[in-house]
Structure formats: C-alpha cells, structure tokens
Amino acid sequence: MAILTQERGALAFRMDAQLDAFAREVNRPDEEIDLLRAALEMGRFAYPDLDTEAHIHRLTRLADAASRYLLESDDISPLALARFLFEVVGFAGDAEHYTDPRNSFLNEVLVRRLGIPISLSVVYLEVARRSNVAAEGVGLPGHFIVRVYDPNGQVIYLDPFHRGAVLTEADCRARVHALTAGRLPFHPAFLQPVGRRYILTRMLNNLKHFYLARGDVASAAQIVERLLVLSPDDLEVMRDLGVLYAQLGKVRAAMSLLQRYVEERPAAPDVPAIQAMLRELVQRASRWN
After folding, report:
1. Among candidates 287, 245, 286, 279, which has minimal Cα distance to 262?
2. Does residue 225 lie within any of the structural domains?
3. Distance from C-alpha of 143 to C-alpha of 31, rounded to nearest angstrom
C-alpha cells in the first residue's frame, strides 16, 4: 500500500509501482486519458500479474469483430453495436451478484462478460470508439448509461446493464425517480455526457462501497488511494483515506491526512469526530516514544 509523506506542507504519495502506473495514466488532460488502459491499471492491486496489453488486445479483437458484424449487417448504428455486444457476444448485467468486485474490474468483465452499468458502459464506449460509432457516457444518479444518436441525429440512450435497452428521456427521469425514491429532483444536467476522469472516479467509488460492505478495509484503502491520485486536492477523499489508515494501524499517515482535513475544513460537521480520532491517534503514537 502506498505511504504518504509530507513535502513542503502538501500531502504527496510515495507510491508503489502499481499506484505509480495508474498515476501515469491519469496524470494528463481528461481527453488524453486512455480510459481502457487506466481502468485496467486501476485494478492492478487486486491482480498483480495482470497483463494489461493482453486485455487491450482482447477488446481490440472484440471491436474488430463488431466492425465486421456492422458491415455485414449493413447497419453501422449504435443499436446494431448493442445487438452485437449484448445478444451475439452475450455481455450482461450481473443483477444476482451486483456487488461482486469482479463486476467492476475490466479484465474480469471482458472475460466473464458480466458487469454493472458503468463497467458494461465502458466496454460499449471502448468498442464503439474503435468501431467509429459515436457514443458518450452519461452518469445518471445510481445508474450509468450511454448516449448515442439515431440515423436522424437524434439523441437516444442505451442501458448496457439491461442488454442495451433503448431509453427515452422520460425513461431516464423515471429511472432516477425510482432509484432515489423520489428524493432527488431530476435535472437536465443528469443527461449530459461525462469525462473519463469522472468515469474512473465513479468506478472507484463503487468499488470502495463494495469493499467496505464486505469489511475489507485494506482493499478499500487501496481504492481510496487511487481516488486521491485522481483528485489530489479533494479533502473528503483525504479524510476517508485517513480514517481507513487509522483502522489499518497506519497511525502517522492517518494523522497527517486527518489534520489537513481539520485545518482546511474547520467548520465541517464531522470535525469534532475527526478531532476525537486524532486525539486517540496521538495517544497511540505517544506509546511508541
């Protein structure tokens, strides 16, 4: 696991090789991020022997097969691509084991052909990009989908988790209403395309929640390290990593992160609880002296 060091008053990672490889992929403008490669490197901590190039080649072969299918069917459209991926090849949403981390790791999704909305959407987006089919990711609250265009240039939405089902704007509104139990009013911005950094962040947040639900604090901390690489100035991510480090006994790293959070967010409602945690960490550290 990466270790944090203090450099000139700012927090910085002394990164291990796995985290450094991910950082190299995402430390660039959003439009220059290779989404597939970054998503694969994101999960290397769980798959130390991962052959990234082999999985990129696997998806490239899939895209080549998709291009042949589109040409042979004389239908170079997003709907035809959805038929290929979800009916011919058999990618599907894993509703039965939704929180299985394998559904979020692209290497597993490409092999098992099972995933959750965002990982299946990434497969669609990456195959579409290689097949000259225009497609963009859309981060609906609670459910990631894909925005494409019909032959008349009109926007339509596809749901990769449900085998590429076509959604109207009204369907999207209903989906948000159902997923949030009506607590979150629908906003047109929900239907706007999102960038690659957003997609990676959302994938990592899913994994964080899945690991925490299993009580796997060590894996959750490795996920949050990657979130901090993506957003190094995000104080809430710093706080979350500090809390996880505290649970793992990484006392000094936890103190550094949590102190930074308290100093920069003194009025945050959780500061009293964080300060109490800091006092306990100080006591633990003092026993070593």
Report:
1. 279
2. no
3. 23
- What the block records as the tokens of 196 is 């690659």
Residues 6+ apart with CB under 8 A from 223: 204, 207, 208, 211
Q: Is 204 exposed, middle or buried (0-12, 13-18, 19+ CB in 10 A)?
A: buried
CATH number, position 61: 3.10.620
Under 8 Å between Cβ of 44 and 21: yes
289 or 230: which carries more pLDDT confidence? 230
Same domain, 159 and 63: yes
pLDDT score of 189 more than 70: yes
User: What are the distances in angstroms from CA 99 to CA 69, 208, 214?
Assistant: 32, 11, 9
pLDDT digits (tens, 9 = 90+) for 56-115: 999 999 999 999 999 999 888 999 999 999 999 999 999 999 999 999 999 999 999 999
Dihedral sign (CA 240, 241, 244, 250): negative
Question: Mapping DSSP to helix (H, G, I), strand (E, B) and coil, where does residue 214 land?
Answer: helix
Residue 71 lies in a domain: yes
What span, in angstroms and rounded, lies between the C-alpha atoms of 169 and 30? 27
Q: What DSSP designation does 266 have? A: T
**Predicted structure pTM score:** 0.92
142 and 275 belong to one structural domain = no
